[in-house]
Write a structure and sequence with these properties.
Blueprint: E1 2-10, E2 16-25, E3 30-34, H1 41-49, H2 51-54, E4 59-66, E5 69-70, H3 76-79, E6 83-86, H4 99-110, H5 114-127, H6 143-156, E7 161-165, H7 173-188, E8 192-196, E9 209-214, E10 217-223, H8 224-228, H9 232-237, E11 264-272, E12 281-289, E13 293-297, H10 304-311, E14 321-324, E15 327-329, H11 331-337, E16 338-341, H12 354-359, H13 367-376, H14 392-406, E17 410-414, H15 422-437, E18 441-445, H16 449-455, E19 458-461
Parallel strand pairs: 3-8, 3-9, 6-7, 7-8, 13-18, 13-19, 16-17, 17-18
Antiparallel strand pairs: 1-2, 1-4, 4-5, 9-10, 11-12, 11-14, 14-15
Helix pairs in contact: 4-5, 4-6, 5-6, 6-7, 13-14, 15-16
Protein backbone atom coordinates (compact mmCIF):
# COMPACT_ATOMS: atom_id res chain seq x y z
CA UNK A 1 0.00 0.00 0.00
CA UNK A 2 2.69 2.55 1.11
CA UNK A 3 6.41 2.01 0.59
CA UNK A 4 9.50 4.08 1.45
CA UNK A 5 12.75 2.90 -0.12
CA UNK A 6 15.92 4.65 1.08
CA UNK A 7 14.09 7.98 1.35
CA UNK A 8 15.89 11.12 2.50
CA UNK A 9 14.70 14.70 2.25
CA UNK A 10 16.43 17.97 3.04
CA UNK A 11 14.49 21.24 3.07
CA UNK A 12 17.61 23.45 3.08
CA UNK A 13 21.30 23.01 3.74
CA UNK A 14 20.68 23.84 7.40
CA UNK A 15 17.34 22.07 7.89
CA UNK A 16 17.21 18.33 7.33
CA UNK A 17 13.90 16.52 7.14
CA UNK A 18 14.32 12.75 6.74
CA UNK A 19 17.30 10.40 6.72
CA UNK A 20 17.27 7.02 4.99
CA UNK A 21 13.69 5.95 5.68
CA UNK A 22 12.72 2.39 4.77
CA UNK A 23 9.13 1.55 5.60
CA UNK A 24 6.25 -0.60 4.39
CA UNK A 25 2.66 0.04 5.45
CA UNK A 26 0.17 -2.62 4.44
CA UNK A 27 -3.48 -2.14 3.53
CA UNK A 28 -5.62 -1.63 6.62
CA UNK A 29 -2.68 -0.81 8.91
CA UNK A 30 -3.14 1.97 11.47
CA UNK A 31 0.36 3.30 12.12
CA UNK A 32 1.17 5.81 14.85
CA UNK A 33 4.11 8.10 14.02
CA UNK A 34 5.39 9.68 17.23
CA UNK A 35 8.34 11.53 18.67
CA UNK A 36 9.30 14.98 19.98
CA UNK A 37 8.44 18.21 18.16
CA UNK A 38 10.58 18.68 15.05
CA UNK A 39 11.57 15.01 14.80
CA UNK A 40 10.24 14.64 11.23
CA UNK A 41 6.69 13.30 11.73
CA UNK A 42 5.02 15.88 9.49
CA UNK A 43 7.78 15.54 6.88
CA UNK A 44 7.22 11.79 6.73
CA UNK A 45 3.49 12.09 6.06
CA UNK A 46 4.06 14.89 3.50
CA UNK A 47 5.99 12.37 1.43
CA UNK A 48 2.85 10.21 1.28
CA UNK A 49 0.31 12.88 0.35
CA UNK A 50 2.64 14.41 -2.25
CA UNK A 51 3.28 17.77 -0.61
CA UNK A 52 6.86 16.57 -0.80
CA UNK A 53 8.19 17.04 -3.45
CA UNK A 54 5.33 18.88 -5.25
CA UNK A 55 4.84 21.72 -2.77
CA UNK A 56 7.73 21.87 -0.30
CA UNK A 57 11.04 22.60 -1.95
CA UNK A 58 14.10 20.56 -1.12
CA UNK A 59 16.21 17.61 -2.20
CA UNK A 60 14.43 14.24 -2.23
CA UNK A 61 16.22 10.95 -2.78
CA UNK A 62 14.76 7.45 -2.76
CA UNK A 63 11.26 6.37 -3.73
CA UNK A 64 7.85 6.70 -2.10
CA UNK A 65 4.97 4.73 -3.62
CA UNK A 66 1.27 4.59 -2.81
CA UNK A 67 -0.74 1.76 -4.37
CA UNK A 68 2.25 1.09 -6.62
CA UNK A 69 2.35 4.66 -7.94
CA UNK A 70 5.50 6.73 -7.43
CA UNK A 71 4.46 9.89 -5.57
CA UNK A 72 7.22 12.03 -7.08
CA UNK A 73 6.24 11.07 -10.63
CA UNK A 74 2.50 11.72 -10.42
CA UNK A 75 0.43 14.84 -9.78
CA UNK A 76 -1.11 16.04 -6.53
CA UNK A 77 -4.51 15.75 -8.18
CA UNK A 78 -4.02 12.04 -8.84
CA UNK A 79 -2.51 11.39 -5.42
CA UNK A 80 -5.53 13.03 -3.76
CA UNK A 81 -7.76 10.33 -5.24
CA UNK A 82 -6.04 7.84 -2.95
CA UNK A 83 -4.84 9.92 0.02
CA UNK A 84 -6.84 12.27 2.26
CA UNK A 85 -5.12 14.47 4.86
CA UNK A 86 -6.23 16.31 7.99
CA UNK A 87 -3.56 18.89 8.74
CA UNK A 88 -2.39 20.08 12.15
CA UNK A 89 -3.90 23.48 11.32
CA UNK A 90 -7.24 22.59 9.64
CA UNK A 91 -7.75 26.20 8.55
CA UNK A 92 -5.00 25.68 5.94
CA UNK A 93 -7.04 23.08 4.05
CA UNK A 94 -10.41 24.82 3.70
CA UNK A 95 -11.53 26.03 0.28
CA UNK A 96 -15.06 27.19 1.06
CA UNK A 97 -16.73 29.66 3.41
CA UNK A 98 -19.42 27.28 4.71
CA UNK A 99 -19.20 23.83 6.24
CA UNK A 100 -21.58 21.91 3.97
CA UNK A 101 -19.78 23.08 0.83
CA UNK A 102 -16.48 22.08 2.43
CA UNK A 103 -17.70 18.51 2.90
CA UNK A 104 -18.82 18.37 -0.73
CA UNK A 105 -15.67 19.95 -2.17
CA UNK A 106 -13.45 16.85 -2.44
CA UNK A 107 -16.15 14.66 -3.96
CA UNK A 108 -16.99 17.38 -6.49
CA UNK A 109 -13.33 17.38 -7.58
CA UNK A 110 -13.55 13.61 -8.00
CA UNK A 111 -16.47 14.17 -10.39
CA UNK A 112 -19.00 12.21 -8.33
CA UNK A 113 -22.69 12.61 -9.14
CA UNK A 114 -24.60 15.13 -6.96
CA UNK A 115 -26.86 12.38 -5.60
CA UNK A 116 -23.89 10.31 -4.44
CA UNK A 117 -22.23 13.35 -2.87
CA UNK A 118 -25.41 14.14 -0.93
CA UNK A 119 -25.68 10.52 0.24
CA UNK A 120 -22.06 10.51 1.39
CA UNK A 121 -22.47 13.78 3.30
CA UNK A 122 -25.68 12.61 4.98
CA UNK A 123 -24.05 9.33 5.99
CA UNK A 124 -21.03 11.03 7.60
CA UNK A 125 -23.11 13.76 9.27
CA UNK A 126 -25.54 11.26 10.78
CA UNK A 127 -22.96 8.66 11.78
CA UNK A 128 -20.76 11.21 13.54
CA UNK A 129 -23.54 13.45 14.86
CA UNK A 130 -22.26 16.73 13.44
CA UNK A 131 -25.58 18.05 12.10
CA UNK A 132 -25.22 21.12 14.36
CA UNK A 133 -22.08 22.09 12.40
CA UNK A 134 -23.72 22.02 8.98
CA UNK A 135 -24.58 25.20 7.02
CA UNK A 136 -22.28 27.20 9.30
CA UNK A 137 -19.70 29.80 8.38
CA UNK A 138 -16.18 28.38 8.57
CA UNK A 139 -15.08 31.68 10.09
CA UNK A 140 -17.50 31.28 13.01
CA UNK A 141 -16.15 27.90 14.11
CA UNK A 142 -13.80 27.27 16.99
CA UNK A 143 -10.48 25.53 16.41
CA UNK A 144 -11.91 22.23 17.59
CA UNK A 145 -15.00 22.56 15.39
CA UNK A 146 -12.79 23.27 12.38
CA UNK A 147 -10.85 20.10 13.17
CA UNK A 148 -14.11 18.11 13.18
CA UNK A 149 -15.11 19.54 9.77
CA UNK A 150 -11.66 18.74 8.37
CA UNK A 151 -11.99 15.11 9.54
CA UNK A 152 -15.54 14.87 8.17
CA UNK A 153 -14.48 16.24 4.77
CA UNK A 154 -11.99 13.38 4.46
CA UNK A 155 -14.53 10.84 5.70
CA UNK A 156 -16.87 11.85 2.87
CA UNK A 157 -14.21 11.23 0.19
CA UNK A 158 -13.68 7.75 -1.34
CA UNK A 159 -9.95 7.56 -0.46
CA UNK A 160 -7.92 4.51 0.57
CA UNK A 161 -5.34 6.23 2.79
CA UNK A 162 -6.04 8.71 5.61
CA UNK A 163 -3.28 10.87 7.09
CA UNK A 164 -3.86 12.68 10.38
CA UNK A 165 -1.29 15.24 11.57
CA UNK A 166 -1.80 16.06 15.28
CA UNK A 167 -5.59 15.54 14.97
CA UNK A 168 -6.33 15.95 18.69
CA UNK A 169 -4.36 19.18 19.17
CA UNK A 170 -7.41 21.48 19.36
CA UNK A 171 -10.05 19.04 20.54
CA UNK A 172 -11.84 18.94 23.87
CA UNK A 173 -12.57 15.70 25.69
CA UNK A 174 -15.82 15.11 23.80
CA UNK A 175 -14.11 15.96 20.52
CA UNK A 176 -11.44 13.32 21.14
CA UNK A 177 -14.18 10.77 21.84
CA UNK A 178 -15.79 11.70 18.50
CA UNK A 179 -12.42 11.47 16.74
CA UNK A 180 -12.01 7.96 18.17
CA UNK A 181 -15.36 6.99 16.62
CA UNK A 182 -14.23 8.34 13.26
CA UNK A 183 -10.95 6.42 13.41
CA UNK A 184 -12.89 3.29 14.39
CA UNK A 185 -15.19 3.80 11.39
CA UNK A 186 -12.23 4.19 9.04
CA UNK A 187 -10.69 1.04 10.47
CA UNK A 188 -13.94 -0.87 9.85
CA UNK A 189 -13.78 0.37 6.23
CA UNK A 190 -10.21 -1.09 6.01
CA UNK A 191 -8.64 2.29 5.30
CA UNK A 192 -4.91 2.60 5.82
CA UNK A 193 -4.00 5.29 8.36
CA UNK A 194 -0.84 7.19 9.27
CA UNK A 195 -1.34 9.26 12.43
CA UNK A 196 1.33 11.71 13.60
CA UNK A 197 0.64 12.51 17.27
CA UNK A 198 2.07 13.56 20.65
CA UNK A 199 -1.04 12.56 22.62
CA UNK A 200 -1.14 8.84 21.98
CA UNK A 201 -3.13 7.08 24.71
CA UNK A 202 -6.49 7.66 22.99
CA UNK A 203 -5.14 5.81 19.92
CA UNK A 204 -4.10 2.62 21.73
CA UNK A 205 -7.31 0.69 20.90
CA UNK A 206 -6.84 1.21 17.14
CA UNK A 207 -3.17 1.18 16.15
CA UNK A 208 -1.46 -1.86 14.69
CA UNK A 209 2.07 -0.53 15.38
CA UNK A 210 4.00 2.62 16.25
CA UNK A 211 7.08 4.31 14.80
CA UNK A 212 9.29 6.43 17.06
CA UNK A 213 11.19 9.18 15.24
CA UNK A 214 14.13 11.38 16.22
CA UNK A 215 16.15 13.80 14.08
CA UNK A 216 14.50 12.64 10.86
CA UNK A 217 15.06 8.93 11.44
CA UNK A 218 12.86 6.03 12.56
CA UNK A 219 14.74 5.03 15.69
CA UNK A 220 12.44 2.24 16.84
CA UNK A 221 9.34 0.35 15.80
CA UNK A 222 6.87 -0.96 18.39
CA UNK A 223 4.08 -3.46 18.07
CA UNK A 224 0.72 -2.26 19.41
CA UNK A 225 1.15 -4.39 22.53
CA UNK A 226 4.68 -3.12 23.13
CA UNK A 227 3.80 0.57 23.12
CA UNK A 228 0.65 -0.05 25.16
CA UNK A 229 2.85 -1.79 27.71
CA UNK A 230 5.17 1.17 28.28
CA UNK A 231 4.82 2.94 31.60
CA UNK A 232 3.92 6.62 31.91
CA UNK A 233 7.53 7.40 32.84
CA UNK A 234 8.87 5.53 29.79
CA UNK A 235 6.49 7.36 27.45
CA UNK A 236 7.46 10.71 28.99
CA UNK A 237 11.16 9.89 28.50
CA UNK A 238 10.41 9.50 24.78
CA UNK A 239 8.77 12.94 24.68
CA UNK A 240 5.26 11.48 24.40
CA UNK A 241 2.02 12.43 26.15
CA UNK A 242 0.76 9.60 28.35
CA UNK A 243 -2.38 11.14 29.83
CA UNK A 244 -5.70 9.49 29.02
CA UNK A 245 -8.34 11.88 27.65
CA UNK A 246 -10.29 13.39 30.53
CA UNK A 247 -12.67 16.29 31.02
CA UNK A 248 -10.64 19.30 32.31
CA UNK A 249 -13.77 20.74 33.96
CA UNK A 250 -13.66 17.82 36.41
CA UNK A 251 -10.13 18.57 37.56
CA UNK A 252 -10.13 20.01 41.06
CA UNK A 253 -6.93 21.70 42.20
CA UNK A 254 -6.17 22.11 45.88
CA UNK A 255 -6.36 25.55 47.47
CA UNK A 256 -2.73 25.14 48.56
CA UNK A 257 -1.63 25.77 44.96
CA UNK A 258 -2.81 29.37 45.12
CA UNK A 259 0.06 31.79 45.60
CA UNK A 260 -1.50 35.19 44.82
CA UNK A 261 -2.24 37.92 47.36
CA UNK A 262 -5.98 37.34 47.28
CA UNK A 263 -6.69 40.23 44.92
CA UNK A 264 -8.92 39.73 41.90
CA UNK A 265 -9.42 41.18 38.45
CA UNK A 266 -13.09 42.10 38.24
CA UNK A 267 -14.68 41.87 34.81
CA UNK A 268 -18.05 43.60 34.43
CA UNK A 269 -20.83 43.75 31.83
CA UNK A 270 -19.20 41.73 29.07
CA UNK A 271 -21.67 40.69 26.40
CA UNK A 272 -20.77 39.71 22.86
CA UNK A 273 -22.51 38.37 19.77
CA UNK A 274 -21.56 38.03 16.14
CA UNK A 275 -23.56 40.22 13.80
CA UNK A 276 -27.25 39.26 13.75
CA UNK A 277 -26.64 36.18 15.90
CA UNK A 278 -27.55 35.28 19.47
CA UNK A 279 -25.04 36.26 22.19
CA UNK A 280 -21.95 34.07 22.47
CA UNK A 281 -21.83 34.94 26.17
CA UNK A 282 -23.31 37.38 28.67
CA UNK A 283 -21.14 37.94 31.75
CA UNK A 284 -22.49 40.52 34.22
CA UNK A 285 -19.57 39.94 36.59
CA UNK A 286 -16.58 37.61 36.74
CA UNK A 287 -13.76 37.56 39.27
CA UNK A 288 -10.36 36.29 38.12
CA UNK A 289 -7.65 35.67 40.76
CA UNK A 290 -4.72 38.05 40.26
CA UNK A 291 -1.15 36.76 40.31
CA UNK A 292 -2.29 33.22 39.47
CA UNK A 293 -2.28 30.82 36.53
CA UNK A 294 -5.96 30.56 35.70
CA UNK A 295 -7.21 27.82 33.37
CA UNK A 296 -10.41 28.57 31.43
CA UNK A 297 -11.88 25.22 30.33
CA UNK A 298 -14.95 24.16 28.39
CA UNK A 299 -16.29 22.52 25.25
CA UNK A 300 -15.23 23.34 21.69
CA UNK A 301 -17.43 26.16 20.40
CA UNK A 302 -18.36 27.48 23.86
CA UNK A 303 -16.80 30.85 23.09
CA UNK A 304 -13.55 30.60 25.08
CA UNK A 305 -11.29 32.01 22.37
CA UNK A 306 -13.79 34.79 21.68
CA UNK A 307 -13.80 35.54 25.40
CA UNK A 308 -10.02 36.01 25.37
CA UNK A 309 -10.19 38.31 22.34
CA UNK A 310 -12.84 40.40 24.10
CA UNK A 311 -10.87 40.43 27.33
CA UNK A 312 -7.76 41.87 25.69
CA UNK A 313 -9.81 44.42 23.71
CA UNK A 314 -9.34 42.92 20.25
CA UNK A 315 -13.10 42.72 19.62
CA UNK A 316 -13.83 46.45 19.53
CA UNK A 317 -17.62 45.94 19.41
CA UNK A 318 -17.50 44.24 22.82
CA UNK A 319 -17.80 46.83 25.55
CA UNK A 320 -16.72 45.77 29.02
CA UNK A 321 -14.66 47.03 31.92
CA UNK A 322 -11.88 45.29 33.78
CA UNK A 323 -10.99 46.55 37.26
CA UNK A 324 -7.31 45.98 38.04
CA UNK A 325 -6.53 47.25 41.51
CA UNK A 326 -7.87 50.80 41.62
CA UNK A 327 -7.85 51.19 37.81
CA UNK A 328 -10.67 50.59 35.33
CA UNK A 329 -9.45 49.42 31.95
CA UNK A 330 -11.64 50.03 28.89
CA UNK A 331 -11.01 48.36 25.51
CA UNK A 332 -8.14 50.67 24.57
CA UNK A 333 -6.41 50.29 27.92
CA UNK A 334 -6.79 46.51 27.81
CA UNK A 335 -5.17 46.39 24.37
CA UNK A 336 -2.24 48.38 25.79
CA UNK A 337 -1.82 46.37 29.00
CA UNK A 338 -2.72 42.78 28.05
CA UNK A 339 -0.74 40.49 25.74
CA UNK A 340 -2.41 37.56 23.99
CA UNK A 341 -0.91 34.48 22.34
CA UNK A 342 -3.45 33.30 19.76
CA UNK A 343 -4.49 29.73 19.04
CA UNK A 344 -3.30 30.09 15.44
CA UNK A 345 0.08 31.72 16.03
CA UNK A 346 0.61 32.25 12.29
CA UNK A 347 -1.55 35.36 12.76
CA UNK A 348 1.05 37.01 14.98
CA UNK A 349 4.40 36.08 13.46
CA UNK A 350 5.53 39.16 11.55
CA UNK A 351 9.31 39.40 11.25
CA UNK A 352 12.02 37.67 9.21
CA UNK A 353 13.73 35.89 12.09
CA UNK A 354 12.86 34.24 15.38
CA UNK A 355 15.14 36.61 17.30
CA UNK A 356 13.49 39.68 15.75
CA UNK A 357 10.09 38.21 16.60
CA UNK A 358 10.98 38.19 20.28
CA UNK A 359 12.71 41.57 20.25
CA UNK A 360 9.77 43.31 18.56
CA UNK A 361 7.69 42.54 21.67
CA UNK A 362 10.18 44.17 24.02
CA UNK A 363 9.52 47.72 25.19
CA UNK A 364 13.26 48.34 24.90
CA UNK A 365 15.10 45.96 22.60
CA UNK A 366 17.54 43.73 24.48
CA UNK A 367 19.19 41.08 22.33
CA UNK A 368 20.85 39.27 25.23
CA UNK A 369 17.55 39.01 27.14
CA UNK A 370 15.75 37.83 23.98
CA UNK A 371 18.37 35.11 23.44
CA UNK A 372 18.01 34.08 27.08
CA UNK A 373 14.26 33.62 26.59
CA UNK A 374 14.84 31.62 23.40
CA UNK A 375 17.38 29.46 25.22
CA UNK A 376 14.85 28.65 27.92
CA UNK A 377 12.49 27.30 25.23
CA UNK A 378 15.11 25.35 23.21
CA UNK A 379 14.83 27.90 20.39
CA UNK A 380 18.24 29.57 20.40
CA UNK A 381 19.47 27.49 17.45
CA UNK A 382 16.58 28.87 15.38
CA UNK A 383 17.29 32.53 16.24
CA UNK A 384 18.15 33.42 12.63
CA UNK A 385 15.46 31.25 11.03
CA UNK A 386 12.24 32.64 9.55
CA UNK A 387 9.42 31.88 12.04
CA UNK A 388 7.11 30.52 9.35
CA UNK A 389 9.75 27.94 8.36
CA UNK A 390 9.45 26.21 11.75
CA UNK A 391 7.26 23.29 12.77
CA UNK A 392 3.90 23.93 14.40
CA UNK A 393 5.23 23.23 17.90
CA UNK A 394 8.27 25.44 17.35
CA UNK A 395 6.06 28.34 16.16
CA UNK A 396 3.99 27.92 19.30
CA UNK A 397 7.09 28.30 21.45
CA UNK A 398 8.17 31.42 19.52
CA UNK A 399 4.80 33.02 20.32
CA UNK A 400 5.23 32.10 23.99
CA UNK A 401 8.71 33.65 23.94
CA UNK A 402 7.26 36.88 22.52
CA UNK A 403 4.66 37.00 25.28
CA UNK A 404 7.34 36.63 27.94
CA UNK A 405 9.43 39.37 26.31
CA UNK A 406 6.49 41.81 26.27
CA UNK A 407 6.68 42.43 30.00
CA UNK A 408 2.88 42.89 30.23
CA UNK A 409 1.28 42.27 33.62
CA UNK A 410 -1.65 40.25 32.24
CA UNK A 411 -0.89 37.60 29.61
CA UNK A 412 -3.49 35.48 27.83
CA UNK A 413 -2.76 32.17 26.12
CA UNK A 414 -5.15 30.35 23.78
CA UNK A 415 -4.15 26.66 23.73
CA UNK A 416 -0.42 27.39 24.31
CA UNK A 417 0.61 23.70 24.24
CA UNK A 418 -1.64 22.40 21.45
CA UNK A 419 1.25 21.27 19.23
CA UNK A 420 3.86 20.49 21.85
CA UNK A 421 5.42 17.24 23.02
CA UNK A 422 5.69 16.34 26.70
CA UNK A 423 9.08 17.91 27.44
CA UNK A 424 8.22 21.20 25.75
CA UNK A 425 4.84 21.25 27.50
CA UNK A 426 6.78 21.05 30.77
CA UNK A 427 9.02 23.91 29.62
CA UNK A 428 6.01 26.09 28.89
CA UNK A 429 4.55 25.05 32.24
CA UNK A 430 7.69 26.20 34.05
CA UNK A 431 7.71 29.51 32.15
CA UNK A 432 4.09 30.13 33.11
CA UNK A 433 5.10 29.60 36.73
CA UNK A 434 7.97 32.05 36.32
CA UNK A 435 5.54 34.63 34.93
CA UNK A 436 3.28 34.10 37.94
CA UNK A 437 6.21 34.31 40.36
CA UNK A 438 7.20 37.65 38.80
CA UNK A 439 3.79 39.02 39.80
CA UNK A 440 1.98 38.64 36.50
CA UNK A 441 -1.49 37.19 35.99
CA UNK A 442 -1.66 34.35 33.45
CA UNK A 443 -5.01 33.34 31.95
CA UNK A 444 -5.07 30.44 29.54
CA UNK A 445 -7.72 28.62 27.56
CA UNK A 446 -6.75 24.97 27.30
CA UNK A 447 -7.96 21.41 26.85
CA UNK A 448 -4.55 20.10 27.95
CA UNK A 449 -5.10 18.25 31.22
CA UNK A 450 -1.37 17.67 31.68
CA UNK A 451 -0.70 21.41 31.47
CA UNK A 452 -3.52 22.12 33.93
CA UNK A 453 -2.16 19.62 36.45
CA UNK A 454 1.40 20.89 36.08
CA UNK A 455 0.85 24.65 36.00
CA UNK A 456 -2.62 25.97 36.80
CA UNK A 457 -3.38 27.23 40.29
CA UNK A 458 -7.13 27.37 39.65
CA UNK A 459 -9.60 26.24 36.99
CA UNK A 460 -12.72 28.11 35.88
CA UNK A 461 -15.29 26.11 33.83
CA UNK A 462 -16.46 28.57 31.17
CA UNK A 463 -19.96 27.11 31.09
CA UNK A 464 -20.46 28.39 34.63
CA UNK A 465 -19.65 32.02 33.78
CA UNK A 466 -20.75 32.56 30.18
CA UNK A 467 -24.39 32.96 31.14
CA UNK A 468 -23.68 34.95 34.28
CA UNK A 469 -23.84 32.02 36.68
Amino acid sequence: MISFENVSFQYTKEQEGLKNINLTVNEGDVVLVCGPSGCGKSTLVRCVNGLIPHFYQGELTGTVTVNGTCVAQTTLRKISRHVGTVFQNPRSQFFNVDTTSELAFGCENFGLEPEEIEQRINYVVNRHEIGHLMDRSIFRLSGGEKQKIACASIAVEPVDVVILDEPSANLDYQGICELQKMIEAWKEEHKTMLIAEHRIAYLFPYITRALLMSDGEITREYTADEIRGLSEEELHSLGLRAEQATDPAKIRLGADRRQGNGETLVLSNMKYSYRKEKPVFDIPRMEIPAGEIVGIVGANGAGKSTFLRCLCGMEKSCRATLKVGDELWNNKQRRRNIYMVMQDVNHQLFTDSVLEEVMISQENEDKDKALEILRSLDLEEFADKHPLALSGGQKQRVAVASAIASGRNVILFDEPTSGLDYSHMLQVSELLKQLRDSGRTVILVTHDTELIKNACTCVIPFAEVKQGQ
